[in-house]
Amino acid sequence: MKSTEKVTDTTGTFSADELNEAFAGFQRTVAEVAAGGDWDRYADMFTEDADFVEHALGTMRGREEIRAWAWRTMTAFPGSYMTSFPSLWHVVDAPTSRVICEVDNPMRDPGDQSLITATNITILTYAGDGLWNKEEDVYNPMEFGRAAMRWCEKAREFGNLDEAAEQWMTTTGAFFARPRSKD
Fold first, then answer.
1. What is the pLDDT of residue 53?
2. Are 120 and 103 contacting, i.e. CB atoms less than 8 angstroms apart?
3. Are 138 and 169 in contact (CB under 8 A)?
4. Which domains does the chain have, with CATH numbers?
């Protein structure tokens, strides 16, 4: 039985210093994309045949599928309410050309200056020339859903719940609602 997973031989091609430098560039671009909303720039950091594994939503194959996913996901609630995606820590694994990091996903202020966020682990595989040939995001969808629901509840309390967030709250968000007390 043959595996259908793409195998890219980048093993040991890059030094730890090269991987750290490439990751610093990745983080700078992600910060600029988060601030400006140009998700094309995000997709352009991947090779044309890259894979993006998103455990709750599936695997995107190729830069153009990554681009479409990024625009669809990051321009709609809750992705569009996340203000930045900083790495809290990272390690490089030069023998596999990978960078592993924990990414924070803070949401904008719901109205009371509280910080609502969730984190994920990201595994990036470097292809060279500033490009990545694989990203895998590992996270708990319940944690993200609960964070988005907390944001909606607070935003509603402070009169900041807009139509997009309210629609999410009453549809998808209902799954993440905390049970009401019977008092």
1. 97
2. yes
3. no
4. 16-108+115-140 (3.10.450.50)
